[in-house]
Automatic annotation (TrEMBL):
Species for this entry: Acaromyces ingoldii
GO terms under biological process: tRNA wobble adenosine to inosine editing
Record's signal peptide: 1-24
CDD domains to which the protein is assigned, alphabetical: nucleoside_deaminase (cd01285)
Full protein name: Cytidine deaminase-like protein
Domain CMP/dCMP-type deaminase: 42-165
InterPro entries: APOBEC/CMP_deaminase_Zn-bd, CMP_dCMP_dom, Cytidine_deaminase-like
Length: 268
């Protein structure tokens, strides 16, 4: 009996883990058209576009590391902040798009006068939209924060197949293995992947088309061509931006020492 008493929690844990890995295949990767957590589908597509286009804020439309994130209050549909990968710009290797967004939103919430305990509670109201599936570092931060939802576009697999080095641990594995935390995070993947995939397809593949506002050119001293901004890229991007998207930058027009880009400001 004593033997079984020790065994039972182990069996329960195994059952939970196998359920978690099976459930990753239960739903289609993109639950297109479903209003999950009371979020209408078109708003998910909207926020994914905001995350995707956060990368334009770096001052060029075809960066080498085109990872962008937007953090949104899930119930009120309010944008808290957006940010893009800042590793190249800062030299800080932890500044992936999601980490940069968490820091930028932390600053927004501090400026709103929230205390540290209130900020720690706030993440549970939020959805993090990111154009590329979070790496293990970012997915762990997302789980530690306790986000209500993580929504991504392009999968790690697709990014890796496009030639970029990745730590090949699917974010759903981090989600399954953080089961003991006292909060759940809903994960939706492949959202608007038709628009996020092209951002990751061109850096290592000379045959791939360039994103909007870019054209392929030879680079002096390099043996392969790369996508480079057309002189009129700002006009091209602005023509594509719905008015609402530009308005959504209100949340964080103030410049910040951490998050050095304020996309909507620079685009205007
Ligand atoms: C998120 O939105 C809900 C509904 O409007 C609101 O009650 C809550 O305070 C918001 N959370 C934060 C941290 O802004
Ligand atoms: C991508 O797919 C969505 C439907 O999920 C569609 O609304 C959108 O227009 C497509 N984008 C492009 C650039 O074709
Ligand atoms: C490179 O891009 C071309 C054109 O989009 C595509 O057909 C091909 O599959 C890509 N190669 C790889 C390895 O992804």
């Amino acid at each position: 009996m004593a033997f079984f008493q020790h065994l039972l929690p182990g069996i329960a844990l195994l059952a939970l883990l196998s359920w978690a890995s099976a459930s990753a295949h239960l739903h289609p990767p993109s639950q297109h058209g479903l209003s999950i957590n009371d979020v209408p589908w078109h708003r998910r597509e909207h926020w994914m576009r905001v995350a995707n286009e956060a990368t334009y804020a770096d001052g060029e439309p075809c960066p080498q590391a085109p990872f962008g994130s937007a953090i949104v209050n899930t119930t009120s549909d309010e944008l808290i902040c957006v940010a893009a990968n800042a590793v190249g710009r800062t030299g800080d290797p932890t500044m992936h798009g999601e980490m940069t967004a968490i820091r930028a939103c932390h600053e927004v919430l501090s400026k709103r006068g929230l205390s540290p305990p209130e900020i720690l509670r706030a993440w549970r109201d939020f959805s993090l939209y990111t154009n590329g599936e979070p790496c293990p570092m970012c997915m762990s931060a997302i789980r530690w924060a306790g986000f209500k939802e993580i929504v991504y576009g392009t999968s790690i697999e697709t990014i890796a197949k496009g030639g970029r080095n990745q730590i090949y641990i699917p974010s759903s594995d981090i989600l399954a293995k953080s089961y003991s935390m006292g909060h759940m995070t809903l994960m939706l993947g492949g959202i608007l992947a038709n628009e996020t995939d092209p951002f990751f397809a061109h850096q290592f593949n000379e045959s791939a088309p360039c994103p909007a506002g870019c054209q392929r050119k030879d680079t002096p001293g390099k043996r392969v061509s790369s996508c480079q901004p057309k002189p009129e890229w700002r006009e091209i991007i602005q023509q594509r931006e719905p008015e609402e998207l530009l308005d959504s930058g209100r949340a964080y027009r103030e410049p910040s020492p951490v998050n050095t880009f304020w996309p909507w400001q620079r685009l205007s």
